[in-house]
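Task: encode each sequence below as structure tokens.

Item 1
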Amino acid sequence: MPPSSFERVESPDASTIFEYHDLTPPTTADVYRARRVLSDHLPRTPLIKSEWLSETYGAEIYLKREDTLPTGSFKIRGITTLVAGLDPAFRQQGVITASVGNYGRALAQAARWFDTEAIVAVPEGTGKNRIEGIERLGGRVEIVGADYDDAADWAADLAAEEGYRYVHPGNERGVIAGTGTAGLEIAEDLPDVDLVIGPIGAGSIGAGYGLSVGAVTDAEVIGVQAAEVDAAARAWRSGELIPQEEANTFADGIAARVPYALPMAVMREHVDEMYTVSEAAIIETVGKLFREERILMEGACAPPFALLEDLSEEINGQTIVIPVTGRNLPGAKVEQVLVDR
């Protein structure tokens, strides 16, 4: 691969991209191609009706249990698709990203499957269990900087210097296509679905589900963010990729400070609406799901469930799917949400 491929290029958003980052929006056909790739590595995930939520809201509400996937998160779909399609030169050198948990764990697992090295930069203060989860799968963890942005800058610098493939947090066609394979499963298992509600951080769920279940059924796809970190929702409405200064939320898995160009281009065409929910609602919802369903989900999963209360009149009588996107809730947060439960 020519050396120019290892140099940064001008980015349409406030993030680092390289020449090899193709910002051409993926298509529904790409999602089907991703499913062929993933069939050798990942199982279909269950789609299970929640009797409690269905009775509460007078609707047929199903949970797409992405938390049952290897690494405990939906992110393994997109990362595996990306690593499977890498140029041989990158497979030989290795892959690198920044993460505070699930993205890094998924990269370590996919790198192991495809026999390449994975380096994951994490900021200081990252939980020991998250670091150990990455290392257990063979990933090399580097603790760098005070926050995610510092870790991402360091990862991009090393990618440029040593030729690693920088796995971008949002601008990855393979990640979007791979994430969308869950939407194809929803469409096949529940073709009469009316509404799919997904959490939005970097945007791979909104973009991937919009290209899959949103394209092959009559379902609407809507996204939900934490109100404290709503850069994507604002960009979806305005078309302007303006980052916010801070990204502090209990739902740290969707704490994307920067709206990314590629998933946003897809979401603005294929996502029907965007909402936000409060921090209090997110924390309360994680506790409720554990109490009523015995599902211990991450804060990043909670916004779609929290939104149900706001949409209670509109969703009456509808068939709805919500993905449970991850189960890797840090120990301190487990204590926080389960106190007095």
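Item 2
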Amino acid sequence: MRKLIGIVASSVLAVSIGASSAFAAGKSPAEFYKDNVVTLILGAGPGGGYDLYSRTVMKHLVKHIPGKPNFILQFMPGGGGQKAASFVYNVAPRDGAKLAKLSNMLPAFQLLRGNVKYDVSKMNYIGRAASMQYVTMVWHTTGVKSLEDAAKAKKPIIFGASGVSQSNYIVPTVMGKLLGLNVKVVAGYPGTAAINKALEQGEVTGRAGAWSSWISRAGRLIDSGMVVAIAQSGLEKSGDIKNGYGKPTPLLLDLAKNDDERAILKLFASDAAVGRNFSAPPGVPKARVKALCRAFDATMADKAFLADAKKRKLIVEPKPCEWLTKVAADIVATPKPLVKKARALLGWK
């Protein structure tokens, strides 16, 4: 009899939860977000570019979301962004109350590494705040002031990285393989701030990072000459990034020796286009995703947001959710023969 009562009670609870979920899903965006709290999950630790962009964007984004919710940040470093991506995709509620600022390298990593616990083609992107033009910097004591100098360096340049899925690991690794530079990459740092600290303490002698992060979080190191730019990684070259001799730094894509190398470098550089992206888990009601997309667009044009971004030295190069979704899908659709060659370059099976 007790067993029967237990079964009945469990069934009633399941029906109750199902009805509650259905009721919540039926709410309009304004009804759902009113008096609610949106949690932004970051695939990195505090103190770096992820943190700064997230705080700045979310401060203004919630004002444009119907219902004007409050927000909090949840830091989830680990595995170069894989831990957060897996959580958002598999565990986070799919109601729109959990948003994410995940690694821009996820689409390429899913393609190159495989066996990941997420599918970027099913994520709900809500927009991009900026591209992530990567710049490779070295510590001044190395004596390296240009890519040519790096090619002649006898001692290895030791790069700090957060994980193998991140550009701060892939960029120096590719530079070593394709350009023959003497580099060593040490992964495992929780984020940009930790790598910058390691640079200053002499643990590492180089870092490949987003230009936006360098100028916003480590501008003093650039201004004082403590770090020197030697190369750029992205799809387009920025002419205002100079090396230690005052000359423009080269774009890695332009250094390809043949079509295959260029195609591989283009694949690796695609993460720059994904950039400072914001997303929601798959399965969020379409009306809420649409509301989040349009709120993001409004935020990017908000004068108060733009003023805050300028004050914090943040680059703003926005793209809408529709554009970002297509870019991620295009990366995942890269031909298999090219993917195989890219994997071989990184030493991945």
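Check on item 2: The domain at 29-131+273-346 is CATH 3.40.190.150 (D-Maltodextrin-Binding Protein; domain 2). The chain has a mean pLDDT of 90.
End of task.
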